[in-house]
């Protein structure tokens, strides 16, 4: 019998906890689930549960994130050629994940029924979730802008994406609260029509005239190996690749909407990398992974890779990439951005507007 080292044993036990928790949450729902019962199912102690997850809610988020991350990939590549068709395919993929009215209330497909109530109950969770949802709308909207549409060529489509996500989240909540209500195909059709709405949406952030320019610096850029959470592939961050002009932003979960500033201000040839950081990685890290995985699934079903934003998104729960960018301590309010050129950090900005300042160098 091969003995596992400490790290392997921790990973093994974490897997056992997640499997046991999934069974408990499916059978009892989040509120009635008990940590002691999860420990018994996993054949571990209560202390072993809390050594892996700081709270029952953190464990719940981790179970949901694992389910989405392990879901089968889209069997066929997306075929949409217009913004409306892409929104329809995105909505179709979203609706396909919702439970059917005929399924039992304790079926596995209803595992996420307690997610929104739990988020609403605590501002420490709802505020990051709001920004994570804004991030989803920004990235979906940027994709839609690259499709043909009857709208003006320079029209921003983030508000259209926000409306689509509002519609789909509402449909999801009604699927849990009122099984059988509404017609899924009508929801898909409604989302398709959103692409042609004229919402007078333009890019004009009010604070930009008041943003201080990035300050020049000169230090080596030695990033760690990381994974791009959007594409589920290694985020190639090494200096040889970033000899081209690039921007690296370190954003806490209260500042994620600043992603749009980096993407719109950076020159078209610039690489843009965003490290998501948080002061509460045990609980909010899994929530961030859940939302990004949900977005990734929708984009894979609806948007060809050539249309995706020129963005690498990294879950930096340990702060390793942030440290490489010179950020030694992170919180949910962190906003720092650096400009990379020829393997060196040549400019840095901190605080409100930092993404725009660094991208505009």
Distance between the termini: 58 Å
**CATH fold-level topology of the largest domain:** Glutaredoxin
Count of domain modules = 3
Largest sheet: 6 strands, mixed
Strand order of the largest sheet: 1-8-7-4-5-6
What do you see in this structure?
Helix 1 packs across helix 4, helix 7 crosses helix 8 and helix 8 runs antiparallel to helix 9. With 361 residues, the protein is of the alpha/beta class. Strand 5, helix 11 and strand 6 form a beta-alpha-beta unit. It is built from 13 helices and 8 strands. The chain is globular, with a radius of gyration of 21 Å. The chain has 3 domains: 47 residues, Orthogonal Bundle (Arc Repressor Mutant, subunit A); 112 residues, no CATH class; 152 residues, Glutaredoxin. The strands form 2 sheets. A 6-stranded mixed beta sheet has the order 1-8-7-4-5-6. The protein has a two-stranded antiparallel sheet with strand order 2-3.
Describe what is shown at a glance.
By secondary structure, the chain is an alpha/beta fold. Helix content is 46%, strand content 12%. The protein is built from 13 helices and eight strands.
Describe the SSE topology:
Elements lengths: L5 H23 L6 H8 L3 H7 L3 H14 L13 H14 L18 H6 L2 H22 L13 H20 L6 H11 L20 E6 L5 E3 L4 E3 L10 E7 L6 H7 L5 E7 L3 H22 L8 E5 L4 H5 L10 E7 L2 E7 L3 H6 L2
Parallel strand pairs: 4-5, 5-6
Antiparallel strand pairs: 1-8, 2-3, 4-7, 7-8
Helix pairs in contact: 1-2, 1-4, 4-11, 5-8, 5-9, 5-11, 7-8, 7-11, 8-9
């Amino acid at each position: 019998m091969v003995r596992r080292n400490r790290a392997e044993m921790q990973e093994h036990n974490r897997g056992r906890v997640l499997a046991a928790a999934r069974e408990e949450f499916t059978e009892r729902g989040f509120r009635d689930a008990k940590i002691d019962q999860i420990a018994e199912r996993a054949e571990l102690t209560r202390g072993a549960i809390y050594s892996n997850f700081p709270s029952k809610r953190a464990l719940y988020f981790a179970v949901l994130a694992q389910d989405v991350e392990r879901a089968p990939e889209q069997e066929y590549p997306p075929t949409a050629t217009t913004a409306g068709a892409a929104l329809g395919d995105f909505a179709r993929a979203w609706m396909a994940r919702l439970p059917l009215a005929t399924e039992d209330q304790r079926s596995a497909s209803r595992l996420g029924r307690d997610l929104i109530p739990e988020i609403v109950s605590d501002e420490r969770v709802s505020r990051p979730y709001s920004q994570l949802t804004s991030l989803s709308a920004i990235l979906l909207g940027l994709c839609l802008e690259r499709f043909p549409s009857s709208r003006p060529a320079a029209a921003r489509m983030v508000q259209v994406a926000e409306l689509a996500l509002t519609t789909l989240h509402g449909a999801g909540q009604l699927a849990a609260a009122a099984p059988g209500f509404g017609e899924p195909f009508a929801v898909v059709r409604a989302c398709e029509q959103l692409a042609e709405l004229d919402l007078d949406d333009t890019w004009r952030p009010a604070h930009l005239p008041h943003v201080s320019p990035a300050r020049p610096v000169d230090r080596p850029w030695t990033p760690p190996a990381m994974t791009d959470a959007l594409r589920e592939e290694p985020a190639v961050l090494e200096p040889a690749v970033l000899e081209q002009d690039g921007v690296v932003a370190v954003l806490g979960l209260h500042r994620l909407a600043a992603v749009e500033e980096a993407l719109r201000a950076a020159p078209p040839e610039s690489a843009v990398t965003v490290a998501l950081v948080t002061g509460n990685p045990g609980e909010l890290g899994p929530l961030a992974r859940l939302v990004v995985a949900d977005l990734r699934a929708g984009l894979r079903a609806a948007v060809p890779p050539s249309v995706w934003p020129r963005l690498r998104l990294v879950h930096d729960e340990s702060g390793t990439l942030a440290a490489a960018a010179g950020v030694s301590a992170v919180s949910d309010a962190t906003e720092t951005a650096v400009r990379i050129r020829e393997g060196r950090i040549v400019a840095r900005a901190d605080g409100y507007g930092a993404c725009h300042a660094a991208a505009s160098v």
